[in-house]
Amino acid sequence: MNFDIIALDLDGTLLNESHQLTPGTREAVREAAQRGAEIVLCTGRGPAQTIPILEELGLAGTIITHNGAATVDAGTKEVIHQFTIDPDKLKPFVEYCLYHGVHYDVSTAFELYIETITEEAEKMYGYFQATPIWRKPGTELPPDLVKFTLFGSIEAMDAVQRDWESWSADLKWIRSGELFIDVQHPHANKGQALEKLALIRGVEPGRIMAIGNYYNDIGMLTYAGLGIAMDNSPDEVKAAAKAVTLSNEEEGVRKALLDYAW
Which cellular component appears as one GO term in the record (predicted)? Predict the structure, then answer.
């Protein structure tokens, strides 16, 4: 085995466009684990939407969630490390969403909170098997927040992105998917979280493979000794990687593992 840790993004990478794990990809990931690599799922999802994928792979262990803001032991549900947000610094983002009618939610490591919902957002939560907790509008935000997420059409998220490009804020935002923008602690990203886990494990970057497909994957692709972008990635993500594999519709993760892992 050429790598001690293999970090895998989920949506657009490990999962196909139907958000399913194909048999060929599942078997290749299992084989990598059997050969001695620690498989670490690194995703923008929360633990509740990530652990079922780990179980479908027949694996257990550590997961990096919320774009690196919370690293969790999937078995014990213990938070190993997290980057929390000062609620006061979220106020301008909340005000923007309320003024422009943009749907948003806030997350701790394990919980997802909403104040309102749209028909489209309700479908989205159902699709990802997420169960939001309702909170009263105007009340104080929960403690230990790790992520503030906007959801809407591509056009709506493009408009938010244009507006926010000129902002000067204490928090960072990143386009984590065509329909999503995440606001987080400035140091929270998959690369930082993967580095902290590698230090705990005593693993050098050269012994790490990372595979991803979107802007929120760039941190881990550049940190890993071998960062691999999916063919369905934007050009900027491909440019940050050391190699490009097939798309998620063509079992690109399986192809990358067969080509490089052993």
Answer: cytosol
